[in-house]
């Protein structure tokens, strides 16, 4: 029974790490495209990506794990900047810029990193407990 609980701990934490890795990748993509414009005049620029998480029952572990359910797009308004000489400017001289706020992305990245670290800590603690259990059985 104890080994089942440890296996579940490993599985749950690993699923959390995988989900946060995807989150970090999406945040990095958003930040990398924060100033990307359209290639055509008046066209839409990069649209910020978002994640939706869900819990899934892992029948082997008999525990809920987290997964990325969907990667979507933030349908918020684009930022407008007046720059009539820009190749992506519309007829009025405005360029649409991505709806990415670098400060929000930085905070999301920090939160994802902390969540990843917390899950890694769970794995390290479970591994340590397993090692101590093996040592006690040897002794």
Notable traits:
two-stranded antiparallel sheet, 2 helices, alpha+beta, single chain, 139 residues
Q: What is the 3D form?
A: elongated
Structure class: alpha+beta
> What is the number of helices?
2
For the CA atoms, what is the radius of gyration?
Answer: 22 Å
Helix fraction bin? 40-55%
Query: Would you tell me the overall average pLDDT?
Result: 94
Structure description:
The protein has 139 residues and is of the alpha+beta class. It has one domain (2-138). Helix content is 49%, strand content 21%. It has helices spanning 2-32, 102-138, and strands at 49-58, 63-73, 79-82, 94-97. The chain has a two-stranded antiparallel sheet with strand order 1-2. It has a two-stranded antiparallel ribbon with strand order 3-4. A hairpin with a 4-residue loop joins strand 1 (49-58) and strand 2. The protein is elongated, with a radius of gyration of 22 Å. The two termini are 21 Å apart.
